[in-house]
Each structure stands twice: as C-alpha cells, then as structure tokens.
Amino acid sequence: MQSQRSVYAWALYDWANSAFATTVMAGFFPLFFKQYWSADVPATQSTFHLGVANSLASLLVVVLAPILGALADQARGRKRFLAAFAALGVLTSASLYLVGQGAWQLAAVLYVLGVIGFSGSNIFYDALLVAVAAPKDRDRVSALGFALGYLGGGLLFAVNVAMTLRPHWFGLADAGEAVRWSFLTVGLWWGAFTVPLLLAVDEPPGTAPAALGWGALVRGAFRQLADTFRHLRSYGLALRFLIAYWLYIDAVDTIVRMAVDYGLSIGLDSGSLIAALLLTQFVGVPAAIVFGRIGERVGARNGILAGLAVYIGVTFYAYYLDSATEFFVLAAVIGLVQGGVQALSRSLFSRLIPVERAAEFFGFYNMLGKFAAVIGPFLVGAVSVLTGDPRLGLLSLLLLFIAGAAVLCTVPLEQRLR
Q1: In this prediction, what percent of the chain has a pLDDT beyond 70?
Q2: CA angle at residue 284 from 279 to 290, to 5 degrees?
Q3: Which class is 4-408 in CATH?
Q4: Fewer CB within 10 Å, N- or C-terminus of the chain?
C-alpha cells in the first residue's frame, strides 16, 4: 500500500471532478439547458432532450468501460487513461462557455462528451483505490474521497452561485454571462486538482510484459475480457453485487441528474433549487465520513441498505412536494445518504475482486452503473412526456431502489473473494 500522502492525493481527485458533477450535471447545465439553450422548446420536450443526452453519454461509457479497464490493467496505464479522460472533461466543460442562446444541440453534444470524460476517468480513479488503501481501510478512504468531493464541488458551486446572484461583483454583465463563466471555472478547477494524483500516486503493476506494443496490449485486453466472461461464475459474489448495483445506482444517478429539471417542471423557482443543491453538497461532507465509519462498524452492505431505505422514502416524499421548503428538506435528506451509498458501494466491490484486475472489474462496475443510467433518465423523461406529469416519472424509480436492495441482501455481509 502507498503512503498517507498518496491517499490524500488520490482522494483529492474527487474534489477535482466533483465540480463537474455539481456545477454542470446537477446544477447549471439542466437549468441553462431549459431556460437559455432551449428557451423556445416546451418544458416536457426539453426534459426529454436532457434525458436522451444523459442516456447517450451513459451508453457510450457502457461500450468503452470494460475494454478500457482491461487495457489499463494490461498496459500499466490507469493514471494515463485517467489523465486522458479528465482532459476530455476539462476541455468540453470549458467549451460550454462558447455555446450561444438557442443552440441546445451543440450544448447537448458537449455535455455528452463531458459526461464521457467524467465517467471514463472515474473507472481508473476507482481502480486506484486498491493501490492506495488496504482492504480494512477502504470504507474510510473511499468515504474520504466522497467527502472531499462534496466539499470541493460545493465550494466551487457556491462561488458560481454567487457569480449568478451578484454578477457585478465579478465584473460580469448579467446572470447568463455568469453561468457561462461558471462552466469555464469548472474546467480550470478540474484540471488543476487532478495534478496531485498524477504526481503522488504510483501506477500499479500491469498484467502484461512491459515490452509489448499497443497492438499486443489491445489483443491482450480483449483476451483478458473474454477470460473474465468465461470464468465469471468464479466471481459470483462480485457478479451478484454488480446486478444489485446496476439496479439501485440507476435511481441514485437519475435523481442527481434530473432533480433541478424536476423542480422546474413542477413550478419551483431556480434560485431555490440552486440553494437546495448547495445544501446537499455541504450536508454530504460529514455524512459521507460518518457512512465510512458505519461501514467499518456494521458492514458496507448494511450501510448501503440503510441508505437505500432512505432513498425509497425520499422518492415517495418527492412525488407529493410542491414548495421550495419541501424541496430543501428533500435536498438535506439526500445529502445525508448520497455520498455514503456511493462510497460504500465502491469499497464493498473492491473487496470482491482480484486486485491485479481492478481496472477491468471497475470497468464492469462503471459499465453497469452507466448502463442503468441509460434507462433511468430516459424513463423519467419519457414518462413525463407521455403522461404530462413529471411526478409519475420520478415515482417509477421506486422499482429500481426496491429491486436493487433485494438483490443486495443476497450478498453475504463482508464476504471477500479469495
């Protein structure tokens, strides 16, 4: 295992890329997409466009993730792949600054590329967890990453919100210009805070001889994938967990990506929605750390199940909410469990896989997570269009939470792969 310095450098990447998750994915992009880039498009139609963009991005990650993970294992290249995908996210996030009013198609394309950069880099970031932390420490270290992510993403988002509320303080003409500058700050933040990981975290050994060229490495990666598929029954607990994760993380990610759009669709004002997102971020900082401790005491599986029970209650609550105050309550409760569910999922899975194939297995982990996200946002958007009621679309997520929890219950507590 590596030094404490490398642990913090690794966790700081969550601080870096969470700027995209908060300011772009959850915050200003859905808001700006509906009110600026899609100003002349009906609300239910823009919700559908946003759902399709999220689903397309996730589908592309589904195709690439396991192949890239296996290749990174073969080529001793987890850090290089992380850097490449982070660079894609940095550039496309910053490029949203240039998109003019009404150009929702270009905004959607850049958003899709940004999500690919964000999701792709997370494959290799997650896989490095097994290199920086011993199994007994992974609940705590994984939770540290999510806590720093909430804090870093929340701090930049708070600055971005201040820019939109008081644009003249920053020398900007109006709130619209402030939002466009916010996309640029995301790119700068993400790029700057990726550097510590690249400098301080050592690259784990590869599974292929160092002298092999890229052609041989790619062939080796596909052979490794085929071997994993053939012997997947040997990793039965990991497979069972992945099925559960595929179900419940779909609903979690859909709530993150569509919350602002949902609030706008039921008539809440944008200022209250942005403030609620900030509340989620800062509640999530201590909550993620607490969940890491819960995982150490009662087991990661039980911690995840507790979080999913809260999400089921939250979904029922969201169906009936109709005021900004109720949305604030919703945001605070989500902040208590969101990071914890994600952190404990990552650490539990890391115990069920062979260390030497961590990038490949985390490729499957991210693949199934994003494949689920192909369905979730599209489902919410499609049900909203078909029924004219976004509340019914959100309520459909209950099936995913309940099914995911049921499958997770079949994974033995703290069972480890040998």
Answers
A1: 81
A2: 145
A3: mainly alpha
A4: C
